[in-house]
Design brief:
Number of strands: 17
Distance between the termini: 30 Å
Order of helices and strands: EHEEEEHEEEEEHEEEHEHEEE
Radius of gyration: 17 Å
Structural class: alpha+beta
Number of domains: 2
């Protein structure tokens, strides 16, 4: 049985005190509704697009700092988890509801789940043009880069493009999936000794207009590059707006 995910969802995990502000910001950024809260004390919810299947979810952590983790949707989470273990992952929890929580060789938290989805939502339209969250970027310390890239390539079975730049490479999921995968090799100062993390990227028709919209919603600009802008949301979550055309 293949371990290649047929869908990938991104979870925005917020510290307890940041949950309400973080969720409200990302609702405004995406234009998505919030599902009924679920789980113990309503710690989980889904950002529901007006069309297509959901792929962005939120969680209130019990403690610790905010982060992004991924849900890989597969036919059999147990079988997929065993394959991941053989590739170097470690199981953190096998839940009675059927999903499995793991940590990659580089320390990145992800889950295997069964939830079915197949229809990628359309971009949202704003006065400044269209935008959508359409990419996850794994931020990999240099000493973990080779092992981590090999792990994800083997686990997903997706083609790896290593010629994007010295800093970035790609995995290529099927085109009908909602999230592109970018792999970033951090510099020595940024990544020494740390675990692999992730951030989300938006594609926008007009990067400057989209950035202005986000700042109006409470985000802060951290850095401006030639092709992308790095921001932090009101609770400190780092993400990027790129000038790529939304799919």
């Amino acid at each position: 049985m293949s371990t290649s995910p047929f869908w990938v969802s991104a979870f925005l995990d917020f510290a307890p005190a940041d949950f309400e502000r973080g969720v409200a910001f990302w609702q405004d950024v995406t234009g998505y509704a919030l599902s009924e809260r679920r789980g113990v004390d309503g710690a989980f919810a889904t950002l529901v697009p007006p069309d297509g299947d959901d792929y962005l979810r939120v969680q209130r952590l019990d403690d610790g700092e905010g982060r992004v983790h991924l849900d890989l949707h597969v036919e059999n989470p147990t079988v997929a988890a065993e394959a991941a273990i053989e590739l170097g992952a470690h199981v953190l929890m096998r839940h009675e509801h059927g999903y499995v929580v793991l940590r990659s060789p580089g320390g990145f938290v992800f889950c295997f789940v069964r939830h079915h989805a197949s229809h990628r939502p359309a971009p949202a339209t704003w006065p400044g043009g269209r935008s959508c969250v359409d990419q996850v970027c794994l931020d990999i310390p240099p000493e973990r880069h080779e092992t981590e890239v090999a792990f994800w390539q083997a686990l997903t079975g997706w083609d790896h493009q290593d010629s994007v730049s010295a800093e970035f490479s790609r995995l290529h999921p099927p085109d009908d999936q909602p999230l592109r995968w970018l792999l970033q090799r951090l510099d020595d100062a940024g990544g020494a000794g740390g675990a692999v993390a992730a951030h989300l990227d938006l594609a926008a028709d007009d990067r400057e207009a989209e950035t202005e919209r986000h700042v109006g919603l409470g985000a802060s600009v951290a850095r401006v590059h030639d092709h992308w802008t790095v921001l932090t949301d009101p609770v400190g979550t780092t993400y990027c707006i790129t000038g790529r055309t939304p799919r």
